[in-house]
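Sequence of IS3 family transposase ISBxe1 (Paraburkholderia humisilvae).
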Amino acid sequence: MKYAWIESHSRQWPVSLLCQVLGVSPSGYHACEARDVDANRPRRRVSNDTLLVHIKAVHPESRGEYGWPRAWLLLAARIREPER
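Predicted 3D structure, token representation.
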């Protein structure tokens, strides 16, 4: 309950101050936030082995010139599920 209140007021006041007033540790608040983010994160749709196959296909197509940002965008476009 305290962490939810801190979250709702964190844009108005510093988190460290809110934690001090409510008697909780800032590290406890941030750990709770990290758990919530992990719980809401979608599971990976592609296995590491499948991803490696895609990476090995993209590398020669770009003649080895793509850095990770451009390769990532290309891979994301290929792996994305078809639009409905």
